[in-house]
Design goal:
This protein has 194 residues and is mainly beta. The chain has helices at residues 84-87, 177-186; strands at 7-9, 12-14, 22-24, 27-29, 32-34, 42-44, 47-49, 52-54, 62-64, 67-74, 91-96, 114-116, 154-155, 174-175.
Amino acid sequence: MSALKKSHVEETLDAVHLAGATLEGVRFEGCTLTDWTASAATLRGCVFEECVLRGCDLSNAKLYDTRLRGVRFERCKLMGVDFTAAYHLGIEVAFEGCVLSYASFGGMTLRELQMIGCRAHEALFDDADLRDACFDESDLRGARFSGTDLRGADLSEATGYVIDPEYTKVKGAKMSVEGAVATAQAMGIEVPNF
């Protein structure tokens, strides 16, 4: 594990290896973290404010009491991350080109979330507030949206999702033809030629 200070402000930190390690009480403010390997790591009591994480692998990382404010993930692997464990301290994130399969966002308020060009297979969004979120070019195959508030969300360029409007708020949401057909079929409506 690379030696990290307790506080990093406006630094660029490259290729830090924390796979399986525990990181406690470290603060990152205005930092760029590039090519980190932190799969199966435990982050406890850490703070990330206005940071960019680029090309990092945090698959199956545990985020206990970790604050994520103004954090942008670019081309990161975040498979199986339970973001709800960090939620009570405040979470404000955006994702671009990330792998978020099996990640959990259940019950979180993530209005205006940006999830652009991501793969989020089997991700859990149940009971989340995703009003005005944007899922452009994201693959949401098998993602769950039961009880989710998707009012005003843009799923028009997303693929692979099925939303049951009986259990999900969708008023004003934009859907792709594929998504609208899947939604209609979830309501028991037959759509010829699909």
